[in-house]
UniProtKB/TrEMBL annotation:
It comes from Kibdelosporangium banguiense. PANTHER family: HUEL-CATION TRANSPORTER (PTHR13414), PROTON-COUPLED ZINC ANTIPORTER SLC30A9, MITOCHONDRIAL (PTHR13414:SF9). Residues 16-226 form the Cation efflux protein transmembrane domain. InterPro entries: Cation_efflux, Cation_efflux_CTD_sf, Cation_efflux_TM, Cation_efflux_TMD_sf, SLC30A9. It is a multi-pass membrane protein. It is found in: Membrane. Keywords: Membrane, Transmembrane, Transmembrane helix, Transport. This is Cation diffusion facilitator family transporter.
Length: 333
């Protein structure tokens, strides 16, 4: 498969578009198979794919709207809008998928018995769906591996620190989709073998729990980014080290960072400069340091350098309250 078409900020729409098309086709097949067989697990899987389709549509909206340039109303840009739409995508997974799966599961377990019909149809649809989902999942894994390798990290480390919820959402939902298909296959198979729809209902409940778990993980990620999460710790340490190396800087008193979008970071550094510097020297030092930071760390979108005395008691109290220790040289002692 050809490499994805990269968007600004390192994003690719190929992963999302491919997942959307795959989920749309699979949702239709599962729904038809669920109506034919009467399987609760198959209907739960249909709801799963419908939720995934809504998710991809929301992610495409996130990609488009978050790339708008900064303006007067939003001077720091629209990067955080990606987190808002991604949060809605996570809610969609829960509402459209998990809740319906729970309903189908409880109906199958406690409701009137329904005779299973044409299970072979369900098996064929599940097999086709697994093959199609594998294509989408493989693309998501390739993108995640490539981006993790670019940052010299393992996939787990990349997913933990990434400020891009899009690829993480697609990877998680595709992984859940493959696992859900296996659960549905087991539920339908046990129903056929035992003649009891209890296994089918339990499988539907398990699919609901799986979707609820994915929705929770994605909601937690996007909540932190919306609130204003600190930038990648590796980046923060690099910025602190670079500031400490500046000849005019005697101490890094405070270092604040916030992720304002994918590959977009705001930095506010409070620095104790050499007292012998004049006003003009201080201005030139700030301009030079700003340029050096931007050259070394392209993801820095806004940089604010504030001269402060290191022994100011009020500022020192704020730093101690935030970090539990003082900062020296950009890293906590």
């Amino acid at each position: 498969m050809s490499s994805p078409e990269e968007k600004p900020g390192g994003e690719s729409t190929l992963t999302v578009v491919l997942a959307l098309l795959v989920n749309l086709a699979i949702a239709a097949m599962k729904l038809i198979a669920g109506l034919i067989t009467g399987s609760a697990a198959m209907l739960a899987e249909a709801a799963h794919s419908v939720a995934d389709t809504f998710t991809e549509a929301l992610l495409l909206t996130a990609l488009r709207r978050s790339e708008r340039p900064a303006d007067r109303a939003h001077p720091f840009g629209y990067g955080k809008e990606r987190y808002f739409w991604s949060l809605l995508a996570a809610v969609s997974i829960f509402v459209s998928g998990a809740v319906f799966s729970f309903y189908e599961g409880f109906s199958a377990i406690f409701g009137e018995p329904v005779e299973q019909e044409s299970p072979i149809v369900a098996y064929i649809v599940l097999a086709i769906a697994f093959a199609l989902e594998s294509v989408s999942w493989a693309q998501a894994v390739r993108q995640t591996r490539r981006e993790a390798r670019a940052e010299s990290r393992t996939i787990v480390e990349y997913l933990r620190h990434s400020d891009d919820p899009t690829s993480k959402t697609v990877l998680f939902e595709d992984s859940a989709a493959l696992l859900g298909l296996l659960i549905a296959f087991a539920g339908i198979g046990l129903h056929q073998l035992t003649g009891s729809q209890l296994a089918d209902g339990i499988a539907s409940l398990m699919i609901g729990l799986l979707l609820a778990g994915v929705a929770y993980l994605l909601c937690r990620t996007n909540l932190g980014l919306l609130i204003g999460r600190q930038a990648d710790p590796v980046l923060v340490r690099g910025i602190g080290k670079r500031l400490r190396e500046a000849p005019e800087v005697e101490a890094v008193v405070d270092l604040l960072t916030m992720t304002t979008g994918t590959d977009s970071v705001l930095v506010c550094a409070r620095l104790d400069f050499d007292d012998s510097l004049g006003a003009a020297d201080l201005e030139r030092a700030c301009v030079r340091i700003d340029g050096e930071l931007r050259a070394e760390f392209p993801e820095l979108s806004e940089i604010f350098l504030e001269p402060v005395p290191r022994n100011d008691p009020e500022l020192r109290a704020k730093v101690l309250a935030r970090y539990g220790t003082e900062l020296h040289g950009g890293a906590a002692k």
